[in-house]
């Protein structure tokens, strides 16, 4: 591995003019994006390959990164998605028997530009005070650009608010993962940036998981005869995803059970008629405390979101779009952010965090079981309704007998 002291110079520039000088890490060049921080002390491979980080330059608050390298078993998707990467002390060696390559080499392979050797704590404290902001990493020859020119380039980059990034991370064609548990039926998963751990958890609960492109229509969903619909996590502003909201309203109108996580939670909120807003610096890490209001239990959960749903935390309220009563089911204990929604009159719920938690705690993994049971309950209800509306064998016999008797009598007359 290349020594930190022989790598090219690099500089991190924020849109307010703040500068941090360090050394190049990964690919060399220029990259722009929203600078955010992730507080996980482990799981950097899962963070890097999480499509929700598309368009963002991720800073790791844990000081020492890269010692376990990268392997072929833990990626959450087909590539590294972060726009840039910021670490303090990159490991000089890889010390894990599962490693297939170093983190540095993986960043180079995927063209991800990073910076190391800066005071990541100072950057984190600045973002916590000033809020997430656009930034740029300039390394190699780009590090020598005029400082004013670097700031100009950063300020010309698009803001995260208003961006729809789903098309950049979604599959282009349907992908199917067969159920590994007792089969329930076909599940339509709208891929807005889905993680592999989510697919695996759904398959383990008995779903044949159909991961569908983000531009699928309601007819495309109906074509697979789904027992339910799932909206995944993903990057971007939920207010810029009107088509996905309209699609979800069609799903709800069809009466299909629904479960959404992260971005899917925000889109359920908008489908129900609620608003969303951008958080000052977001929640990103694997140690976020959340209260499950139904049980009173506090869960330590994995988060990656910069937007949240606007809704009253206490009591129930009417869906502005006519879907009956709704309640906030989970609340973030750090800042009272809405972390879950539950519709009381239709089979739909969502959470803002990641129950698959890769890497991270498994406190919220039960939500996949809750979803599976919701779908089974819906199936039982539909079967019961069909049975009640369908005449019994005795009734059909009597009806046929009366019809036959009447016909005979008419013939005799």
TrEMBL record:
What EC identifiers does the entry list?
A: 6.3.5.5
Q: By its UniProt entry, which Pfam families does this protein fall under?
A: CPSase_sm_chain, GATase
Reaction(s) the record says it catalyses: L-glutamine + H2O = L-glutamate + NH4(+); hydrogencarbonate + L-glutamine + 2 ATP + H2O = carbamoyl phosphate + L-glutamate + 2 ADP + phosphate + 2 H(+)
Q: In which pathway does it act?
A: Amino-acid biosynthesis; L-arginine biosynthesis; carbamoyl phosphate from bicarbonate: step 1/1; Pyrimidine metabolism; UMP biosynthesis via de novo pathway; (S)-dihydroorotate from bicarbonate: step 1/3
The Gene Ontology terms for molecular function here are:
ATP binding; carbamoyl-phosphate synthase (glutamine-hydrolyzing) activity; glutaminase activity
Bias (Basic and acidic residues): 378-399
The UniProt function text for this chain reads: Small subunit of the glutamine-dependent carbamoyl phosphate synthetase (CPSase). CPSase catalyzes the formation of carbamoyl phosphate from the ammonia moiety of glutamine, carbonate, and phosphate donated by ATP, constituting the first step of 2 biosynthetic pathways, one leading to arginine and/or urea and the other to pyrimidine nucleotides. The small subunit (glutamine amidotransferase) binds and cleaves glutamine to supply the large subunit with the substrate ammonia.
> What's the name of the protein?
Carbamoyl phosphate synthase small chain
User: Which organism's genome codes for this protein?
Assistant: Microbacterium terrae
